[in-house]
């Protein structure tokens, strides 16, 4: 379970970086298959559901298990659902709709490509703190959001790629972005009495 929780938190951090400060002009609503590839070529699959710029649900497969993380930027919180009908809550101590000066970047369009049938503008974000590397997004013209994102280290080596396939644009049910009934809040500091 620790490995699965760590993977969920890594994906959550990636989501925060992808959705905060990059493509906020659009208000997409969709579901899609998500493919995450790390620098070693390890592939993790899952589903993503997005409702506007403030509600994201990720379901990540790890073996037979599925880890669910709900990101609620409107409430400045994320929830990770655990199989024991518990959830872990992480509050953001920053405004997710404002740029974080620790991650200041310069943005430039570096080309156009077609990804998964979508005509995309390729945009590169180079962090001012050079040790953070850069991020490249393929932003679908018709959809207004990135259908592919790569993070690169300071040497330009690709560290991770997130790609969305089988994108189904349309309204998403509100209950996907809420804690299911019967779940109790989990705390690392719970006492047995």
Task: Describe this entry's structure for a reader.
The chain has about 190 residues and is mainly beta. It has one domain: outer membrane lipoprotein receptor (LolB), chain A. Helix content is about 10%, strand content about 50%. The chain has one helix at about 1-20, and strands at about 30-40, 45-50, 55-60, 65-70, 75-80, 85-90, 105-115, 120-125, 135-140, 145-150, 160-170, 185. A twelve-stranded mixed beta sheet has the order 7-8-9-10-11-1-2-3-4-5-6-12, with helices on one face. The longest helix is centred in the N-terminal third of the chain and has 18 residues, at about 1-20. The protein is globular and about 50 Å long. The relative contact order is 0.20. The model is unreliable at about 1-25 (pLDDT under 50).
What is the gist of this entry?
This protein is mainly β. The protein contains one helix and twelve strands, in the order αββββββββββββ. It has a twelve-stranded mixed beta sheet, covered by helices on one side.
Total number of distinct structural domains: 1
Assigned CATH architecture: Clam
The first-level CATH class is given as: Mainly Beta
How many DSSP helices? 1
The percentage helix is under 10%
Strand ordering within the main sheet? 7-8-9-10-11-1-2-3-4-5-6-12
Proportion of strand residues: over 45%
Mean pLDDT: 82
What are the secondary-structure elements, in order, as H or E? HEEEEEEEEEEEE
- General form: globular
- Number of E strands: 12
Which residues form runs of ≥5 with pLDDT under 50? 1-25
| Derived structural class | mainly beta
The termini sit apart by: 24 Å
